[in-house]
Amino acid sequence: MQDQAKLYLEDLAPGDRFVSGEHALDAEQIVTFAGQFDPQVFHLDDTLARDTFFQGLAASGWHTAALSMKLLVSSLPLAGGLIGAGGEIAWPQPTRPGDVLHVESEVLEIKPSRSKPDRGIVRIQTLTLNQHGEVLQRLSPTLVVMRRPVPDEA
């Protein structure tokens, strides 16, 4: 992405919305991720997962979070990157094989820093939805967002 497409604190306003592209998820991706990072039976084996809380193969919430981050980075091009400073995450329902994920984000609040004039804090609401519009993840992060650099006055 080119520099002119990057967004700074001054470019954002409460109510601004951003929508990502899509990511199609299949069972192989779910099992591969789980094998490395969350090796629980309901993420690894569809047959055994049927007798669990999830009643079938489900992606790890952390897999959903990682995919959401990928989609968020591509749809919210902040100058300096997406720098997290806290937040809350919830998974209201499982992510399943065959789900096609996309992320919708909205700027909720912007607070320029009083002590660090080169940045501010932005709260956003990010929903990860499947192809049916069902919310799979709700993320409410607080982000550090850089201000546009002031040209040198010489």
Would you kindly provide a written description of the structure presented here, covering whatever features stand out?
- With 154 residues, the chain is an alpha+beta fold.
- It has one domain: Thiol Ester Dehydrase, Chain A (Roll), CATH 3.10.129.10.
- The protein has four helices and six strands.
- The protein has helices at residues 27-37, 41-44, 46-49, 61-75; strands spanning 17-19, 23-24, 83-90, 100-112, 119-129, 135-146.
- Strands 1, 2, 3, 4, 5 and 6 form a six-stranded antiparallel β-sheet that branches.
- The chain is elongated and about 65 Å long.
- The model has no long low-confidence stretch (mean pLDDT 94).
**Residues in helix, %:** 10-25%
Q: In the CATH hierarchy, what is the superfamily?
A: Hotdog Thioesterase
Q: Unreliable segments (pLDDT under 50, ≥5 consecutive)?
A: none
Order of helices and strands: EEHHHHEEEE
* Outline type: elongated
Provide mean pLDDT, rounded. Answer: 94
CATH class: Alpha Beta
Rg over C-alpha atoms, rounded to the nearest angstrom: 18 Å
**Number of beta strands:** 6
CATH topology annotation: Thiol Ester Dehydrase, Chain A
Proper CATH architecture: Roll
The helix count comes to 4
The biggest sheet, with number of strands, parallel, antiparallel or mixed sense and barrel status, is: 6 strands, antiparallel
Helix/strand-derived category reads alpha+beta
Number of domains: 1
Name the beta content range.
25-35%
N- and C-termini, Cα separation: 30 Å
